[in-house]
Amino acid sequence: MTTLGDRIREQRIKKGFTQKQLAELIGAKHNSISDWENNKSKPDSNTIRLLMKALEVDANSLLGYDDKESIKSEAAKLADNILNNPKITKMLSLLINMPDEDLSLVIAFAERLNKQNS
């Protein structure tokens, strides 16, 4: 699976930029580009916006959400977790035919429980 750093490097090279040139374009330090590309750190959301503009790519491409194989793999993992957890399977069977109003109550209750356990 390609990482954010791999995609930054790939797009930078496609545009013909050196790490130093890209850093200058977005107002970052040269070593930041290297750190991102080597997956030592990740850019913050504002920097990702600057990278998108400089590299002329959309967020889906840069963040890897257009990578169909990764999406399939993540979906398969999620499905596996759901299907192999009897409590989740039981909960889904109870929720599937529940009216929207009741679903909203269940969601609100689950969110409240989740906050209490955080």
From TrEMBL:
Stored CDD domains: HTH_XRE
Q: Which molecular function terms from Gene Ontology are attached?
A: DNA binding
Print the keywords alphabetically: DNA-binding
The record's section on Gene3D superfamilies has: lambda repressor-like DNA-binding domains (1.10.260.40)
The reply on keyword Aminoacyl-tRNA synthetase is no
Q: Which segments does the entry list as coiled coil?
A: none
Q: Which domain of life is it from?
A: Bacteria
Q: What is this protein called?
A: Helix-turn-helix transcriptional regulator
Q: Which organism is it from?
A: Ruminiclostridium herbifermentans
